[in-house]
Amino acid sequence: MTPYSETDGTIIERERLPDPAEGLNLERVTYYSQGLRVKGYLCAPESSGPLPGLVYCRGGIRGVGMVRIPRIATLARRGYAVFAPFYRGNEGGEGREDFGGEDRYDLYAGIRLLRALPATGPDPVPLIGFSRGAIMALLAAKECEGVGPVVVWGGVSDLQLTYEERVDLRRMLKRVVGHPKKDEEAYRSRSPVCWAGQIRSPVLIIHGSDDEHVGVEHAYRLAKAMEAAGKPVAMNIYQGRAHVFPRDEDEQVLDTIFNWISH
């Protein structure tokens, strides 16, 4: 399992932010990950008793796909203490994000942080990974203690396929990860289809059939790899839907997700 330093997940600062909705508290948290000061949002409903925890793994990189407060508020409103790491180098955090490389430890430390809070406790924490956040969530399910069921929504499962599909991302991928032929292992290590047999959590795949950013082939490849490895997996493909769902349907999908997480 992943080794931790004594300080990983230790909170350095908690900054109270305006409540995103009535009955919800929001904080910007600074914590340690591999000796770096990194940041994330913690959002939880007001409660006199313990709450289940949940970690939201954002997509994108740097300013693209940054955690949106309305998104984590929607999750917290369902009765969860939600932590959403920004990953290193973002919003004043130290270090440099590297798309599922060393920055995965920022997620692992965030899971440790959430499980140590008095309001949540040590139970395994479900993860929701959106877009490239799926890589992060599934890496955690492979390498990190304390991970519960994992939901991947519009998730990247094969980074080589992303390189082929997204011509607009090739420059970034070559800079951050490397060239897929010269740095094949860097791509494999970030591609859950290559190590599906090591994923230790049940996985629910959510994907739109017309996803313009992460093609639906990612969903099919992940499901096939997990089934071949004998791992528990479920998949819901939403016909005609893109990377981001319409608001009303988004809420319906969240109903499905939270029903699956809780059973």
From TrEMBL:
Listed GO biological process terms? proteolysis
Q: Name one Pfam family in it.
A: Peptidase_S9
MF (Gene Ontology): serine-type peptidase activity
Cited SUPFAM superfamilies:
alpha/beta-Hydrolases
Span of domain Peptidase S9 prolyl oligopeptidase catalytic: 71-262
Gene3D superfamilies per the UniProt record, alphabetical? alpha/beta hydrolase (3.40.50.1820)
Query: Would you tell me the protein name for this molecule?
Result: S9 family peptidase
